Amino acid sequence: MSDESRSALEAPAAARGVATWYETAGHRRVDIDPEVVRSVMALLEPRTAAPAPVSAGVSLPEVPRTWGWMLQLYGLRSAESWGVGDFADLAAFARWAALTGAGAILVNPLHAVAPVDPMPSSPYSPSSRRFVNPLYLRIADLPEYRAADSSLRAQVDALRPPVAELIDYDAVWRAKRAALALLAPTTIADTADLAPALRDFAVYTALAEVHGVDWREWAPPLRHPGPDAYAAAEPARVAFHVWLQQRCAAQLEAANAAAASMAVGIVHDLAVGIDPGGADAWTLQDVIARGAKVGAPPDAFNQQGQDWGLATWSPDRLAATGYAAYRELLRGIFAHAGGLRIDHVAGLWRLWWIPPGQGATRGAYVHYDPEAMLGVLIEEAVKAGAVVVGEDLGTVEPIVTETLQNRNILGSAVLWFTRDDAGRFIPPAQWPANAMASISTHDLPTALGFLTAEHVHARAEAGALTRPVDEEIAAAAADRAALLELLVAEGLATDTSTDAELVVAMHRLLTRTPCRILLASPYDVLGEPRQPNLPGTSAEYPNWRIPLPLTLEHLTADPRMLQIAELFDSRS
């Protein structure tokens, strides 16, 4: 395409917030195919001015200086839970953590997933971000269970599944679903007074049980919330799903009450997008970008780019409706949270949209109004007295990090990524102050996994390596050597330190950073070599299915957990 023709496309593309080029991490300009730009533009409406929903520059109060734990809730199993960590386990852990001086607990997304069998395991591909996965309900804590006679309790108790080595979501959900069916109220409550969001979520879920989870494949009269859909949904099933969400809210509230004495409390995790065939995409069609999926452009690590298969907000429709749906989402989460982590926080500025029928390489960035997106976020967080953390790892434009710092939104500082341009680990004193610090994340090697190159072996076994295994092993050995060099320079380790001693040294390193919140993961502390999720794999690796190596009762009494709690709590 000629430069003149490309230039003629820039103005109309800019009017819709669509980029015609982007810059790679290596500062190389990449021009986007004009046909792709036009395809993305066709998914948007012309932008119109909308009243500013919040004040240009509002900031959060300074975040308390504290420490805490990062949990994959499903892996926090106890003697009382049914093979998967639940809300009561979260409450028990919060009570223990508070007693040791912890001020925060970060949990994986608790969003509702598609109501199918087999149940999706990834918490980052939700059907709804506005409602909660009832898999996490503690059956024995339900008032209906407590009020039941001994015969009904025995029936429910008999459904409890055996504990498996890996998390068996399907077995757990089948058992809980059967137990919940026995305990659910038989009287159908009037749904007329329900909040529209809850009513529509329950209607979607009831319809999905009959017609399949992808509403785009339903009969045309059912593809939109309205009289036809409401009439087609079985009232008893709608009432059942309303009841589940009400019980989830109550148990989440109990967990938050257990964390009430903490400086921050329980921090929820917000996934970047939603299942395009799921509940939120059905109920929020007026503000969701129809047909677009989000992902990432090609880079050095993913030459084919990434297609996350997720739907997201349409910026033009979101603005035209005053950001009401976005505000409602945040308000609902903050009602049961002391804080919120925003996955891929750069998405408040721009997202890589992939038009229908295209691969991840043939996408374009679509820009949002960051002042509005941040303004609504901060306004709702201030009302709730909550903190906000942005996941700003990887390739992120400087404006993102700078704005987060200026608004008192914490960034993310992860040991594996805190390096200079030469690849050397940065001394802890030079880490950012307005950040939440940790050794790793759910997508990265655990502390022991890093030291033993378990991530390389796992990728090799899964067939997910992009280089020969010998090269990957050598790179992992070089990474270990670079980390050891830093730990020795800081006086935290010696060349003869054992792996267990190095794990403690890594945690001690975090205490020397100025970061406002320090987080430890029980997977790291307890020496679990396997990481929770191995990106680029599906059935080849037990993603999101690896439990903690100890039950909750043993975990909270383990000397290693107590040692790290004491270490973090003694930070000046």
TrEMBL record:
Q: What is its EC number?
A: 2.4.1.25
Lineage: superkingdom: Bacteria
Gene3D superfamilies cross-referenced by the UniProt entry: Glycosidases (3.20.20.80)
Which gene is transcribed and translated to give this protein? malQ
InterPro entries from the xrefs?
Answer: GH, Glyco_hydro_77
Protein name listed in UniProt:
4-alpha-glucanotransferase
Uppermost EC category: transferase
Catalytic reactions on record: Transfers a segment of a (1->4)-alpha-D-glucan to a new position in an acceptor, which may be glucose or a (1->4)-alpha-D-glucan
Q: Which UniProt keywords apply?
A: Carbohydrate metabolism, Glycosyltransferase, Transferase
- Which protein family is it in? Belongs to the disproportionating enzyme family.
**Organism in which the protein naturally occurs:** Dactylosporangium vinaceum
GO MF terms here are:
4-alpha-glucanotransferase activity
